[in-house]
Design a protein that fits this description.
By secondary structure, the chain is an alpha/beta fold. The protein has six helices and 13 strands. The radius of gyration is 21 Å and the shape is globular. The structure holds adenosine monophosphate. Adenosine monophosphate is lined by residues 6-8, 36, 38-39, 61-64, 92, 94, 97, 115-116, 118-119, 122, 124-128.
C-alpha cells in the first residue's frame, strides 16, 4: 500500500515575520524556511506505518518553488522512499494544491494520503478537506492515532470532552494533529542516503492543473501592539486593580 504525504515549505516556526511596508503580505526574503511542523508529523507517521509493515511505499510531495526540493530531501531523510516536486513560482492557494494532489493521486494510486492539519504560514486548514471532496474519499482530520486494519484505517481524534474514534474505508485522507507522534531526529547518514533517493519534477501544466489564484489578499496588518504590563506589589493590589481599574471582578 502506497502512502502520499504532502509537505509544505514554510517560514520556520521560530522566525518572527514582518509585514511588508506596502501591506501586501509578509516579508519572507532571507528568512529561514523549514518543513511545516504538522507535515513532519505526517512523514513520521507514514514512516512508522511502513516500519510496522502496514505500508510498502511512502511518497513525499511538495508544490511550490524549486527550493521545495530541500523540504523533500528532509522528508526522505525522515523515511519517505521518494519525492515528487510540482514546481511553480505561482503563490499556491489551498484549492490549487488540492487539485495538484488529486492529479498525483490519479497517477500514483495511493490508498492513503496523510497531510498536516494546517500550514503554519497561512493557517488555512483547507487542503486535506478540499482533496477529500475532490476525490470523494472519506476523511479524518486532526488525527492523534492512526491504525491500519485490513481495508480500513482507524483514526482517533481528540475532541471536546474525550476521544472520537473513526473507521474509514481505504482509500482515505487523514490530517495530523500535534500529539500524533514526535518526529525522529534526522541523522547525518540518513541525510546522505536521502540525497540518493529519486526526486521527480513536474509542472502544474504537466498535470493539467490551472493554479491561478482564486482569492485576492486585500491588506495585511501587524496585530495591534500590546501595552506594557505593570508589576503589582501584592495580591491585594492586584485584586484592587481588577476590581476598580479593569472592572472584571
Ligand atoms: P493548509 O490547508 O494550507 O493549512 O495546509 C494543510 C496541509 O496541506 C499541509 O499541512 C500540507 O500537508 C498540505 N499542503 C498545503 N500546501 C502545500 C504545498 N504547497 N505543498 C505540499 N503540501 C501542501
Amino acid at each position: 500500500m502506497k502512502v502520499l504525504v504532502p509537505v509544505k515549505r514554510v517560514v520556520d516556526y521560530n522566525v518572527k515575520v514582518r509585514v511588508k511596508s506596502d501591506h501586501s503580505g509578509v516579508d519572507i526574503s532571507n528568512v529561514k524556511m523549514s518543513m511545516n511542523p504538522f507535515d513532519e508529523i505526517a512523514v513520521e507517521e507514514a514512516t512508522r506505518l511502513k516500519e510496522k509493515g502496514a505500508v510498502t511505499e511512502v511518497i513525499a510531495v511538495s508544490c511550490g518553488v524549486a527550493q521545495c526540493q530541500e523540504t523533500l530531501r528532509t522528508a526522505m531523510a525522515i523515511g519517505a522512499d521518494r519525492g515528487v516536486l510540482v514546481q511553480t513560482d505561482v503563490a499556491l492557494q489551498p484549492l490549487a494544491v488540492a487539485k495538484l494532489l488529486r492529479a498525483l493521486v490519479d497517477k500514483e494510486q495511493p490508498q492513503l494520503v496523510i497531510l498536516g492539519k494546517q500550514a503554519i504560514d497561512d493557517d488555512a486548514n483547507q487542503t486535506g478537506q478540499m482533496l477529500a471532496a475532490l476525490l470523494d474519499w472519506p476523511q479524518a482530520t486532526y488525527a492523534s492515532k492512526v491504525e491500519i486494519e485490513g481495508d480500513q484505517v482507524k483514526v482517533t481524534r481528540e475532541v471536546d470532552g474525550g476521544l472520537e474514534i473513526l473507521s474509514l474505508k481505504l482509500p482515505a485522507i487523514v490530517t495530523t494533529d500535534l500529539r500524533l507522534n514526535e518526529p525522529r531526529y534526522v541523522t547525518l547518514p540518513n541525510i546522505m542516503k536521502a540525497k540518493k533517493k529519486t526526486l521527480d519534477t513536474f509542472t502544474p501544466e504537466d498535470l493539467g492543473v490551472d493554479v491561478a489564484p482564486r482569492l485576492k489578499t486585500l491588506k495585511v496588518n501587524e496585530p495591534p501592539a500590546r501595552s506594557a504590563g505593570v508589576v503589582v506589589p501584592d495580591v491585594a493590589a492586584l485584586v484592587d486593580k481588577l476590581k476598580n481599574e479593569a472592572k472584571v471582578i
